[in-house]
Design goal:
The protein has 2 domains: 160 residues, Jelly Rolls (Sandwich); 94 residues, Arc Repressor Mutant, subunit A, CATH 1.10.10.60. Helix content is 40%, strand content 22%. Helix 7 crosses helix 8. This is Helix-turn-helix domain-containing protein.
């Protein structure tokens, strides 16, 4: 198998991927703290693109749309340790360790660039993966508590994010969709992130764009792809995933149907 995930607790895992690349559209239910052992990851958000390599440590906020593309690198597989920081665990932590005051959470990816304290905390988990043993619950609690405490000390701004337990509220649908149309999510996810039921999302979408969501999404993604090919001179194989398509064949078929010529005709 090319992709393997090994858990030592329900919230701590080691993932390893040996294929050419692995791409997914995600919206994590929980904050995720990641430490790279090898390989490379590109994370594409509406406002930024991040590239992480071996040794990097970063925190991905929950309820944020992202395209994640994982690659092996330098002959080594894509391999990473990840901690899921659940709302339940964080709620318990902040009940015992209150924040100094109320602050607006920054919905961004926090990078900690090979921080020695975080690296030491996460490296201490590796023997359990090597032995194939579960982490005793009391040790797991201590390691998660240690990781949260280090995050707070390294970047005090992270408190505002980790101590925010609110669910997405109803937001401006037009602005959200214009910024996130390239993410290949189902309509239920788009509805949730804009604070709507699916029925209300469809109704509001029709009112805002005078189009059905799926038709509008396809046209927007193809327009983005055309721009990347014609203006940025990029290759179809490099941009189809970033434009929200599952595979190159589907992208090429949709592109030719929309424009009357294949993506390769632009080169």
């Amino acid at each position: 198998m090319e992709y393997v995930t090994q858990y030592i607790t329900a919230d701590i895992k080691l993932s390893e991927f040996k294929g050419k690349l692995f791409k997914t559209e995600v919206m994590f239910e929980h904050h995720m703290l990641v430490w790279f052992l090898s390989g490379e990851t590109k994370i594409i958000q509406a406002d930024a693109t991040h590239i992480f390599t071996a040794g990097d440590i970063f925190l991905i906020p929950r309820n944020q749309l992202a395209t994640i593309i994982n690659y092996p690198k330098d002959g080594l597989p894509h391999k990473a340790v990840a901690m899921h920081l659940t709302k339940e665990r964080l709620s318990d932590f902040y009940a015992r360790h209150p924040t100094a005051g109320k602050a607006t959470p920054l919905k961004k990816i926090y990078s900690f660039s090979k921080h020695p304290l975080l690296e030491s905390c996460l490296a201490s988990l590796i023997p359990y993966f090597d032995l194939g043993e579960s982490l005793p619950s009391n040790i797991a609690d201590l390691k998660m508590e240690e990781a949260i405490s280090i995050l707070r000390s390294v970047d005090p701004q992270v408190d505002a994010l980790l101590a925010d337990f609110a669910e997405p509220g109803k937001i401006n649908l037009t602005d959200f969709m214009e910024r996130h149309y390239m993410f290949n999510m189902n309509l239920e996810r788009f509805a949730y992130l804009t604070g709507r039921s699916l029925a209300t999302f469809r109704r509001d979408f029709k009112k805002a764009f005078n189009a059905k969501p799926q038709h509008w999404l396809t046209e927007k993604r193809l327009a983005l792809a055309h721009y990347q090919l014609a203006e940025k001179k990029r290759k179809a194989s490099d941009i189809y995933m970033e434009a929200g398509f599952e595979n190159l064949s589907h992208f090429s078929h949709a592109f030719k149907k929309q424009f009357g010529y294949s993506p390769q005709a632009i080169y």
